[in-house]
């Protein structure tokens, strides 16, 4: 690991040096200059160097062949009202305050030739004082959570055209929706709607899968289709699911997963460089309005045991339709809007339900409470349907003065109708971004209001017992 970071430091410095003009007469002077001739006198006036916003090494003179490196860090300070029964390292806790790293990533990617593209992403997620989980019966190792998220090689069939790109490797390029493959450095809200990453850390690696895919843009159509080789649930790192009347991921059998996403782009075309990743907001730099439809399907992915004599395998079938809008309101002022509305049909088999809490600040739940409901968890995934919407407004450019940034407010609504819940579930977020330097440096304050759930006597149904809140401050730095 030490050698890796030494190599990256050397690579970063090499990028910077490679972009400097090699001119013996000016190489020692970091300030570029311009020369004026006035009445026969030569006068030199300093000109500030152009500020760069990326670490990029050009492999040819035009820059069409290049290699880049990026770094992202999202640090959270969070106060959470705990769900009933929450324990933190075996002590009851009504509320928690924690500091953590939601995401820490580095990307290395580039167009190596007219037809060859390479992409890697390395990093870690959900690193707080519990390090993503707590096992009181085992020794812990807080150094094991950084891993390769992506490792993809891609072939561009037509030179300088996005008509068809074929890739394979570990990748997030998949179906269902744009939020199943989000570019997390550019999202409008503090966090993405994670339910759209349908099998996250169950049969994938933090939403990435070993896949063979084709993607491209032809006219107004943006498409991606993939065949994936899902991981068995036995390799998820969590306790194995117990067979019963409610569907779980199967412990037997292995079938390929098929998925696809189609988008019709009415105005500007969206970015198409990195495999899969879709921008959260362009902050008014583009005029984007898309309609999308996506799906994921896998044979016999789920299993339930309704009676002692029956073991029933069921297909996993997920699909969605949605609209996405991101465009300027007033170009002179720099104001813009962002909006998304989607419907998700999620069939994981009979009565499937999974609680999840993002970077959960709790380690357990007391006896007598529903398993997995500790901390900030809520029923994030389930068989049924979900309506998700978000809306944001970007205020005028340089709201606080030149180079002092601006604000973008937003709301998020997730309404789920899952089989095992006795009523519909609503999770609501409101937030405010302080865009110090666009997405490269921003502060986000987010408040979430969510329900918590209790068992219904004599039934497998769960009922909401009340609501809890969570307040989070995120500081994002990205280059």
UniProtKB/TrEMBL annotation:
Residues 1-18 form the signal peptide. The keyword Signal applies. This is Porin. It comes from Spirosoma validum. Keywords: Signal.
């Amino acid at each position: 690991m030490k050698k890796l970071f030494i190599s990256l430091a050397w690579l970063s410095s090499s990028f910077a040096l490679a972009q400097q003009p090699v001119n013996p007469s000016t190489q020692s002077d970091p300030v570029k200059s311009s020369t004026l001739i006035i009445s026969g006198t030569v006068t030199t006036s300093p000109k500030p160097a152009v500020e760069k916003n990326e670490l990029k090494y050009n492999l040819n003179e035009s820059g069409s062949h290049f290699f880049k490196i990026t770094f992202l860090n999202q640090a959270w300070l969070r106060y959470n009202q705990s769900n009933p029964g929450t324990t933190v390292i075996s002590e009851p806790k009504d509320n928690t305050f924690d500091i953590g790293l939601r995401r820490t990533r580095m990307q290395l990617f580039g167009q190596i030739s007219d037809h060859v593209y390479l992409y890697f992403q390395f990093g870690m997620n959900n690193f707080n004082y519990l390090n993503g989980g707590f096992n009181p019966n085992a020794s812990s190792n807080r150094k094991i959570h950084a891993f390769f998220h992506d490792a993809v090689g891609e072939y561009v069939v037509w030179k300088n055209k996005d008509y068809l790109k074929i890739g394979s490797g570990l990748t997030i390029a998949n179906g269902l929706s744009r939020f199943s493959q989000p570019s997390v450095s550019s999202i409008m809200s503090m966090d993405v709607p994670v339910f759209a990453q349908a099998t996250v850390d169950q049969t994938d690696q933090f939403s990435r899968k070993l896949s063979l895919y084709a993607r491209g843009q032809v006219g107004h159509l943006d498409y991606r289709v993939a065949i994936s080789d899902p991981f068995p649930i036995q390799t998820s790192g969590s306790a194995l699911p117990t067979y019963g009347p409610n569907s779980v991921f199967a412990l037997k059998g292995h079938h390929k997963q098929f998925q696809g996403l189609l988008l019709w782009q009415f105005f500007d075309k969206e970015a198409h460089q990195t495999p899969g990743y879709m921008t959260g907001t362009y902050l008014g730099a583009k005029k984007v309005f898309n309609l999308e439809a996506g799906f994921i399907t896998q044979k016999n992915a789920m299993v339930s045991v309704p009676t002692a004599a029956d073991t029933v395998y069921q297909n996993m079938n997920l699909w969605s339709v949605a609209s996405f809008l991101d465009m300027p309101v007033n170009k002179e002022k720099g104001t813009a809007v962002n909006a998304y509305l989607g419907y998700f049909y999620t069939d994981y088999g009979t009565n499937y339900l999974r609680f999840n809490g993002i970077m959960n600040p709790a380690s357990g739940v007391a006896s007598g409470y529903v398993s997995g409901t500790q901390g900030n968890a809520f029923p994030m995934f389930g068989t049924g349907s979900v309506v998700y919407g978000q809306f944001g407004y970007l205020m005028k450019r340089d709201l606080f003065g030149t180079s002092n940034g601006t604000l973008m407010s937003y709301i998020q609504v997730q309404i789920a109708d899952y089989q095992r819940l006795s009523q519909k579930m609503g999770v609501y977020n409101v937030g405010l971004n302080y865009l110090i330097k666009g997405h490269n440096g921003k502060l986000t304050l987010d408040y979430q209001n969510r329900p918590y759930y209790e068992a219904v006597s004599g039934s497998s149904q769960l009922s909401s017992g009340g609501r809890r809140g969570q307040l989070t401050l995120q500081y994002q730095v990205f280059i």
